[in-house]
Each structure stands twice: as structure tokens, then as C-alpha cells.
Amino acid sequence: MKLIDSKSAMSQFVVVKSDRDIPAIVERAQSSERKRALQMLHTSYEAELHTMVNVICRGSYAVPHRHWIENSDGTITKKGESFLALEGEGRLLLLNDAGHIERVIALNGTEHTMAWIPAGVWHSIVSTSPYLVVFENKTGPWKENEDKLFHPAFPPENDSNAEKIVREWEMVPVS
Known about the structure:
Layout lengths: L5 H8 L8 H10 L4 E5 L8 E9 L7 E2 L1 E3 L5 E3 L2 E7 L1 E7 L5 E8 L5 E4 L4 E6 L3 E9 L9 E2 L11 H10 L4
Antiparallel strand pairs: 1-2, 2-11, 3-12, 4-5, 6-9, 6-11, 7-8, 7-10
């Protein structure tokens, strides 16, 4: 068994961020066309665990998706995902196969709400405050066409109907 030299691994791979870094991520999100910004804490797309700080501004549209993909070679990629609210407020929407909202979870940075989404569950997230900051974990690695499947009942991000959908989702009651 080959062991990794822990001293070189620590200096090479450990990423440290604090709440002092959040304002810069918020600023990136606010100036972004997507109204979102992601700060990776993992060191590469190939990492086994993806750990991120994600800022979602009010009005940002994340197409409902799930992490359960049938790949072209017949294999299936399944990934769970977790969120921990750090700042702001938002909604985590869980949808069924028809695209109807089944459950709405309030995310609250003051209460540090946590949520786990199993592989295969359709979901999206919206901010109900000027911005929502979440700590997010998901299993890796990330491969562009093998990470998530977008729900076919919803328009892509740049579609003009997306703004109306987000406004409705921001108002949906917590269930």
C-alpha cells in the first residue's frame, strides 16, 4: 500500500475559505448574467467530493434537474446533493416526473437550514432574499454531459419564460 505524504498533500490540496470571502462571491453573482456564482473548494472536476459555496441572487433561474443519468455506454451515474444555508433565504423545490412541485423546503441562513437531496430527485433552488448563500456538497467527478439531466418540462436558462417561473417559485409556500 502506498501512502500519501500528508505534508505535501496538505500544502497542495487544502483550500480554506471563510465568511470574509463571501462578499466577493456575492459581488460576482450580482454582476453575473446568470445571477449566480460558485466558489469551488475542491481542487478539480475529477475530485470524488465536490464542495462549493454557491451564491444565488433573487431572480436566478436554475432549470429543474436531477443527478441520475443514463450514460451513452448504458451505465448510470447517480449523485446525491446537500445544501447548508449560510446567509439569506430561499426555497428548495422538489418536483415529480411531471414537473409539479411536490415539496418546498425553506432555506434560512440564520437557522442554517440543511437539506439532502437523494439521487434521482428533480429539484431547483431560488432565493427569496436579495441573495442566498449555500454550502453545497455533491459526489464527483464532474463530467459535463454526465452530471445532471434537465427536466424536459422546463425551458433552458436563457428562455424568456424563465423569469415568470422564478417569480412564481419565489412565492410558493413552504410545505
